[in-house]
Amino acid sequence: MDAITNLFIGMWDEIAAKTNKVVGVLFPNDADGIIWTKMFNAKLPAKGYKMVDPGRFPFGTRDFGSQIEMFKKEKVEILTAVLIPPDWATAWKQMHQQGFKPKMGTIAKALLFPADMVALGGNLANGLTTEIWWSRYHPYKSSLTGESPMDLCNAWTKETGKQWNKPVGLTYGGYEMAFDAIKRAQTLDKEKIRDAIAKMDLMTIFGPIKFNEKHYCEIPLVGGQWVKGKGVPWDLELVYNKNNPQIKKTAEMIFPLP
Predict the structure, then answer these.
(1) How far apart are the C-alpha atoms of 2 and 136, rounded to whole Å?
(2) Could you tell me the CA-to-CA distances from 31 to 34, 38, 43, 105, 164 in Å, in that order?
(3) How do the domains of the chain map onto residue ranges?
(4) 192 burial class (0-12, 13-18, 19+ CB within 10 angstroms)?
(5) Regarding the domain delimited by 2-133+220-240, which CATH topology (the fold level of the hierarchy) does it fall under?
(6) Helix axes 190-198, 166-185, angle to 10 degrees
(7) Among 14, 35, 134, 141, which is disulfide-ready with 169 (CB 3.0 to 4.6 Å)?
(8) Residues 91-137: pLDDT tens digits?
């Protein structure tokens, strides 16, 4: 969680001087919402931001009127959320209908697929920012074939007729990890495969994989922004990379929201 909250705050720091540094949060009553509340409560004041939190709410909420009124009253200019796509679509449409438009919106979870941007309707996806844990622009290569992320995405589009998306690379990378572990274990014995995974030191199509003493591995994160696409309705550009400069930006951040 540190990596993603630091990423979001890093993106806001880029434009903070052009805002009042008031951040409104939409965090639901689930595991993500609860931990995000704690993390941002701990980090935002130290960075000079004010956090406006209308409280937790259940999945499937159909009326965000009370949250929107609080955001308007507190003059929120930066909005963040960790929502499933249907709930985000409901909230974002109601915000526009009720005259609340922040200068920046950085949303986790809900902005994963291009189809989710189309589902928002009109131009409502334009300029929204989010985390990127893999893209066709990443500088890594497949440990199996030497293919680049761009090669993989082009093959995906040719085979399926669909636009690339972030899970393509992460799914592929899972097969890289499985192949590496079984190859080194030289058996299907689950304990030996477990030990091989623990000792993994592998460069994959989505970055380096090496598990720490707590048995997890963090992959590099950069900031992305949805913009009008060329030949597709919406495309995801890489606009912030200070935490991982080896992953190059593909565009400058649009600010404020169009």
Answers:
(1) 25
(2) 5, 11, 19, 21, 29
(3) 2-133+220-240, 149-209
(4) middle
(5) Rossmann fold (3.40.50)
(6) 120
(7) 134
(8) 999 999 999 999 999 999 999 999 999 999 999 999 999 999 999 99
